[in-house]
């Protein structure tokens, strides 16, 4: 058997191993996504995977609302001085990402959990502030409390 034939066999066997490993990491991502989606008080949150120091581009793993579903995604933001802040340039479901990005994202899951907890606290505080702002306006307009 030639070296090329041996290499071809090794590549086929390696492909099987990569497929099995890829399915295993994807299964874990799907399970984590389902667990997060079932939590009460879901909020959108993200944590940085990497940034490019030469360009205003950052890649995040994020927990994101997509219609009525909550999913794990990879997003790429570009901060090109847009007046509303960074612009999302790319969004892909984490379960559909490359194996390299899946591995990096899974390593950041603890940071994402911390980001979710922080986003919940921030959102709760901001909602209460908005309610107080309404109460001031309602008092000025004579709107009475009630159901």
What does this structure look like?
This protein has 147 residues and is an alpha+beta fold. It has 3 helices and 4 strands, in the order αββββαα. Strands 1-2-3-4 form a 4-stranded antiparallel β-sheet. A hairpin with a 2-residue loop joins strand 2 (57-66) and strand 3 (69-78). The relative contact order is 0.12. The mean pLDDT is 91.
How is this structure best summarized?
The chain is about 50% helix and about 25% strand. It has about 150 residues and is an alpha+beta fold. It has a four-stranded antiparallel sheet.
Topology:
Blueprint: H1 3-37, E1 45-52, E2 57-66, E3 69-78, E4 87-93, H2 99-107, H3 109-141
Antiparallel strand pairs: 1-2, 2-3, 3-4
Beta-strand fraction estimate? 15-25%
| Radius of gyration (Å) | 22 Å
Q: Count up the helices.
A: 3
Flag low-confidence runs: none
Can you tell me the overall shape?
A: elongated
Across the major sheet, the strand order is 1-2-3-4
- Intertermini distance: 83 Å
Residue share in helix: 40-55%
**Mean pLDDT score:** 91
Largest sheet composition: 4 strands, antiparallel
| SSE string | HEEEEHH
Coarse structural class: alpha+beta
């Amino acid at each position: 058997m030639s070296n090329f034939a041996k290499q071809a066999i090794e590549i086929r066997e390696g492909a099987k191993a990569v497929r099995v490993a890829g399915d295993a990491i994807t299964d874990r991502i799907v399970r984590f996504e389902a667990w997060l989606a079932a939590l009460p008080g879901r909020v959108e949150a993200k944590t940085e995977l990497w940034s490019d120091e030469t360009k205003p581009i950052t890649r995040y793993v994020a927990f994101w609302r997509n219609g009525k579903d909550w999913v794990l995604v990879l997003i790429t933001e570009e901060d090109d001085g847009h007046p509303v802040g960074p612009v999302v340039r790319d969004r892909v479901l984490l379960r559909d990402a490359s194996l390299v990005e899946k591995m990096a994202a899974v390593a950041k899951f603890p940071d994402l959990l911390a980001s979710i907890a922080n986003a919940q606290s921030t959102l709760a505080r901001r909602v209460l502030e908005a309610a107080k702002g309404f109460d001031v306006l309602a008092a000025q307009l004579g709107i009475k409390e009630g159901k």
